[in-house]
Automatic annotation (TrEMBL):
Superkingdom, taxonomy of origin: Bacteria
Gene source species: Actinocatenispora rupis
Gene3D superfamilies found in the cross-reference section: P-loop containing nucleotide triphosphate hydrolases (3.40.50.300)
Residue intervals of the ABC transporter domain: 6-231
Protein name as catalogued: ABC transporter ATP-binding protein
């Protein structure tokens, strides 16, 4: 396979009355962790299932390295997926679960131990899955996706239910996969979490693309989401000189002011001209949660 780029073009899925995915197009690059975000019912799982050939698209295409999943010569060695962490046979040990998958995929059984090692589950390899914590099950799901040592990894909500320590672990693991040049696509509805582990995000709502790009760009949005924190002993003089409406200035709990609608240089220039002392002038990074809510508001809803 030339590379592990994922290309989704005009993808649509109509389930009877529900248009779960609606003319969706986006790309996912190798060597990066891409977060696939959307409110509940946005169409994330349906999109991933179409990408993996588990659901037939009504129209449009989804390709991995230029081919549809069903046309890949040896799919399990090219794409690893963890879609449902809950679908384990509870009475099996973690190791047996992976060995069964190896056998089904025609992979050598020792891949199971290697994958367990990779996700830190070796000490629990011989314990039954029913005794695993949620975090351990998530790790096992990731190990399952790694069995064929694939170029492309696709996980549905892998960080769901993990504690902060588990999330940190997940971040390190996913970025190590990306550093090896793999393509990593991970869905989530926990936006603050995606902000921690993704390089790029694809945001959808009601089956449609809302935005795609580096996390960095999204959190540095201009406009409504952009605020500048100002600390000054002479706020009235400064904001008077800037001729800002009252609504553009909000006090924060630490004695500073959050200002919207002007740039940092504009504030600095006005302060200099008015002879006002500035103790702090700091553009704030918008948090992804806020950006996401602004972008998807009114478009979510239960369908
Ligand atoms: N097999 C199906 N038959 C009918 N409707 C379906 C089917 N699968 C999904 N849907 C509908 O398609 C829409 C998108 O569902 P999907 O599970 O893809 O969303 P999601 O973004 O993964 O949501 P969540 O975060 O809640 O898992 C929903 O309205 C859902 O009810």
């Amino acid at each position: 396979m030339a590379d592990g780029q994922i290309v989704v073009t005009g993808l649509t899925k109509q389930f009877r009355k529900v248009r779960a995915v609606d003319n969706l197009s986006f790309t996912v690059q190798p060597g990066r962790v891409t977060g696939f975000l959307g409110p509940n019912g946005a169409g994330k799982t349906t999109t991933l299932r179409m990408l993996l050939g588990l659901v037939t698209a009504t129209s449009g295409t989804a390709t991995i390295g230029g081919r549809r999943y069903v046309d890949l010569p040896d799919p399990l060695r090219i794409v690893g997926a963890g879609l449902e962490a809950s679908s384990f046979h509870k009475g099996r040990t973690g190791r047996d679960h992976l060995r069964v998958l190896c056998a089904a995929a025609g992979l050598p059984a020792n891949r199971a131990d290697h994958a367990l090692e990779m996700v830190g589950l070796t000490p629990a390899a011989k314990r039954k899955v029913k005794g695993y914590s949620l975090g351990m099950k998530q790790r096992l799901g990731i190990a399952a996706g790694m069995l064929g040592d694939p170029q492309v990894l696709i996980f549905d909500e892998p960080a769901n239910g993990l504690d902060p320590e588990g999330i940190r672990w997940m971040r390190t693991l996913l970025s190590s996969f990306a550093d090896q040049g793999r393509t990593v696509l991970v869905s989530s509805h926990l936006l603050s979490e995606v902000q921690l582990f993704a390089d790029d995000v694809v945001i959808i709502a009601a089956g449609k693309l809302i935005r795609q790009g580096p996390v960095e760009e999204l959190t540095n949005l201009d406009g409504a989401a952009r605020q500048i924190r100002v600390v000054t002993p002479e706020p009235d003089k400064l904001f008077g000189a800037l001729e800002l409406p009252r609504t553009a200035v909000a006090k924060d709990e630490n004695g500073g002011f959050l200002v919207t609608g002007v740039t940092g240089p504009q504030i600095g220039k006005a302060a200099l001209a008015a002879g006002v002392e500035l103790h702090e002038l700091a553009p704030q990074r918008a948090d992804l949660e806020k950006v996401f809510l602004e972008l998807t508001s009114g478009k979510a809803g239960i369908r």
